[in-house]
Amino acid sequence: MANEPRTETAVEEPALGESEEPLSLRSITSAFVGGAAGLIAMSPLIAGVPILLGIFQLESLARLAEFVISQADATLGLLFFGGGGVVVLPLFFIVTATFLPPKQPRYLRGATISSFFWVGFVYIFWPAGGVFINATFVVVTLVSHWIYGAVLGLVMQRLTGIPEHAV
Q: How many CB atoms lie within 10 A of CB 64?
């Protein structure tokens, strides 16, 4: 029982073979695929709940875009949000995954990195509402980011493995 060796699961065996180099084109591509899958997985919760509650604010997306371009609109903000989820956060994950907890299962390191990015998300998208709306926002967005990160890590683990850097 406690002394039995741990057996590997199918999730922990990369389908495309583990990448020898942590920053190969193959591992970067798998991170982008994981980021896109994570965005798709989190979308029903992060957008659906605010829409159902009638508190979805397009102004927040425009505010995100205004960090880069003045007088931007919600469409550009949505593109930046998607680009961040498909490109930026997965690149951060590839570089930092070696140093993130938990040790096992390695794919949950994606949830760790997405928790860090959630803090910035809360700052940008904080709703103007009462206690119920704010509490719902915190819970829904945190769980959404955990879903995103777990899917990102799971896809990467499944395709090429989570990169390990020698420091």
A: 22
